[in-house]
Amino acid sequence: MMARVCMVAFNIYLHDARTRRQAEALVARGDEVDCICLRKKEHRNPRVVNGVRLFPYTIDKYRGTNLGFHLTQHFFFFCFAFFMVLRQQLRKRYDVVHVHTLPDYLVFVAAAAKILGTKIVLDVHELMPELYVSKFGAREGDWIVRLLTWVEKRSIAFADTAIAVHDPHLDALVRHGNSRETFIVQLNVPDSSFCMSRAAPRHRESEKFRLVYHGLIAERTGFSVVLRAVALARVAIPDLEFQMIGAGDGLAAAMELAKQLRLDGCVRFVNDVPNEDIPALIGQADVGVIPYPADQFTRYMLPAKLLEYVAMGIPVIASRLETISYYFAANMLRYVEPGSEADLAAQIIDLYHNPKQRRELATNAMRFSAKYNWENQKREYLDLIDSMVSANVCTVRRHLRKAVVRQRSGTL
């Protein structure tokens, strides 16, 4: 039975690995998928990507700390997405609308579709209250944090099913007052193409020792810590190279700090990379780095970049944070004290001198990918969509039976 699914994401589709995996998995088995998403002003992306039909809203997504700018962009996208969902719903009737956060209240763009009988999935990528505390410097008891928690609860209650991105994330959502029974857990694991993209091992003696970080570049993701650590480690590793791939409100500051630290010949910045180009860029790295500081938001992070490094067999140095430690034992990653550039530099130097240890870390971390992989997650996701479509069919049949009974009663 073919499903008609609409996805809504306040993100650029080509850069959103999670949304793409789910949408393209549906298309691959014969379902029809539309995606309402973002497109940068300078981009002219195709309207169909691997069978997924895009309805893009053209905007340069703001990543700074001005709350007014965020709310303004959210409002205009909300209006656009609400209209597009309603228009397409009236044309062909969706079985499922799958909304990806942030923001949580984006789920209400599907209000009209829900009234017309469509099932709603809310994919809760991040914790809005904790993110606000981390990004805007609020305190946990502030009225705005309480408001965001209330909005989160109302948004999840509106959906028929919600998705959490890992177990500690689900535990936090339950502590916020949400029902555990509403959720399934879908880790943000890469698909098998990442596992196959790892190039043949390189010989460090003949090439540079390469570190890599990719994703959001912001102060809350620790760019200053890793750059200062690279400056320290470079003294002991003359052929050190650090590749920072991504964008964000911290990119300009990161480039300026690299210049101040005289890392111009050591650090390379790569901006605006589509998801399918990431494996080729990171595949030649010797070590991946996850330098996040410790705060209320990062304690619940299981970074997609970490899971991608692990899937590709790249050893990882990571901050010792609650959720990362929940999934990865001490012999699977090289842990460092969050915010300590000296500790990070020391671990970089140690792994430079110990290629055997790098191989052992990568091999041990593969145990995670054996247990949590996209093939398993995909089956669970497709089963979820099937269950919602079946529920819709049963509802339609029930209404038809009632209509027939009423018609017969009227005839008699």
Question: How would you characterize this protein structure?
Answer:
The chain is an alpha/beta fold and 412 residues long. It has two domains: 218 residues, Rossmann fold (3-Layer(aba) Sandwich); 180 residues, Rossmann fold. Helix content is 46%, strand content 17%. It has 15 helices and 14 strands. Helix 4 runs antiparallel to helix 5.
Provide a brief overview of the structure.
This protein is of the alpha/beta class. It has helices spanning 17-28, 67-92, 111-115, 128-136, 143-158, 167-175, 192-195, 223-233, 251-260, 278-282, 304-311, 322-327, 341-353, 355-371, 374-411; strands at residues 4-12, 32-39, 48-49, 52-58, 96-100, 119-124, 161-164, 183-185, 209-214, 240-245, 267-270, 287-290, 316-319, 334-336.
Question: How would you name the CATH homologous superfamily of the largest domain?
Answer: Glycogen Phosphorylase B
The CATH class of the largest domain: Alpha Beta
Report the end-to-end length measured between terminal Cα atoms. 36 Å
CATH level-two architecture of the largest domain: 3-Layer(aba) Sandwich
* Strand arrangement, major sheet: 3-4-2-1-5-6-7-8
Described by strand count, sense and barrel closure, the largest sheet is: 8 strands, mixed
**Number of DSSP E strands:** 14
Low-pLDDT stretches are 199-206, 396-405
Write down the Rg: 23 Å
Number of domains: 2
Silhouette: globular
Helix content: 40-55%
The third-level CATH topology of the largest domain is Rossmann fold
Structural class: alpha/beta
Determine the mean pLDDT.
Answer: 87
Q: Approximately how much beta-strand content do the residues carry?
A: 15-25%
